[in-house]
Write a structure and sequence with these properties.
The chain is of the alpha+beta class. It is built from seven helices and eleven strands. The protein has an eight-stranded antiparallel β-sheet with strand order 4-9-11-10-6-7-5-8. A hairpin with a 7-residue loop joins strand 6 and strand 7. The chain is elongated.
């Protein structure tokens, strides 16, 4: 039998870690003196101790430790899951490092052409989708994109069924939810020739209608194949350039009126156009 100090020296586990593993039932000592409360360990505990040491070095969450200390088949499954998470995190870090290299070197820097134009008056109909508050995983993003695509498709069909089919490319807009300071909504819209009747709805969807008024707006566009450095989770640099230009020109903008419009070529979406209404105040 070994003291906790001897066992710690042989296994590379700290005294604090051994006490924690005892409290959590992951590696209980062979015996505990009822008077001194000194813990004693046996050589038969080397294997689970080394597994614990190794899995912690590999960054496995302590909550997953029981599975990795169990049967070989279950431990292998838990290890495979953790390995997949580690590889995904490495890919994210590699992508971030590559983006940082490009940002520091100036590679992929783009001279964005921000133009001013007059937006024509246009009726529209849209579906309103909640945006997940912390949905930054690949699964969350893919799910949100699929829901948006589904909404655009369902809205197109519903509008066509009324004889008021969309008249141009789709557009979308992010905005704060009306009853919250922190929640965000996505408005997925199609332009239509005629205003929809009051109370028009689509089963299973939250629908909104309105009109883009005749007004000045700033616009910038980009193609998906443009060699631009886009940092994961950050708004596209073209949009940031648009807002920077607005600020430099001293014009007010309302972010809720920023529209992302699909650039279409031969029926395919090849890029985006972003437009935002400007407010110059009284002239």
């Amino acid at each position: 039998m070994m003291s906790i100090g001897e066992f710690a020296e042989l296994t590379g586990l700290s005294l604090k870690a051994l006490r924690l593993y005892d409290e959590q039932g992951l590696l209980k000592p062979t015996s505990v003196d009822p008077w001194s409360r000194h813990r004693r360990y046996s050589a038969s505990q080397f294997e689970p101790a080394i597994r614990l040491k190794t899995l912690r070095a590999a960054g496995v969450p302590l909550a997953d430790a029981p599975r990795l200390l169990g049967e070989v088949s279950e431990a292998a499954g838990a290890l495979a899951e953790h390995r997949a998470r580690v590889l995904a995190e490495r890919e994210r870090q590699d992508a971030a490092l590559d983006a940082l290299d490009r940002l520091l070197s100036g590679e992929g820097r783009h001279d964005w052409q921000v133009e001013e134009r007059r937006a024509a008056r246009q009726h529209w109909a849209g579906v309103v989708l909640p945006v997940p508050h912390d949905g930054d995983s690949a699964e969350d993003i893919d799910g949100a994109n699929e829901r948006a695509d589904e909404g655009f498709g369902a809205l197109w069909q519903a509008l066509a069924a009324t004889g008021n089919a969309p008249t141009g490319p789709f557009w979308s807009a992010f905005r704060a939810a009306s009853d919250s300071d922190t929640e965000i909504e996505l408005l997925c819209c199609w332009p239509v020739a005629h205003p929809l009747p009051a109370g028009w709805s689509m089963p299973g969807w939250t629908v909104e209608t309105g009109t883009v008024e005749d007004s000045p707006e700033l616009v910038v566009r980009w193609r998906f194949d443009d060699p631009v450095t886009v940092v994961d989770g950050v708004t596209h640099p073209a949009v940031l350039a648009l807002l920077t230009t607005a600020e430099e020109r001293g014009v007010g903008v309302d972010l809720s009126r920023l529209r992302q419009i699909g650039l279409m070529e031969q029926g395919e979406v090849v890029g985006m156009e972003v437009a935002i209404t400007v407010n110059r105040g009284p002239e």
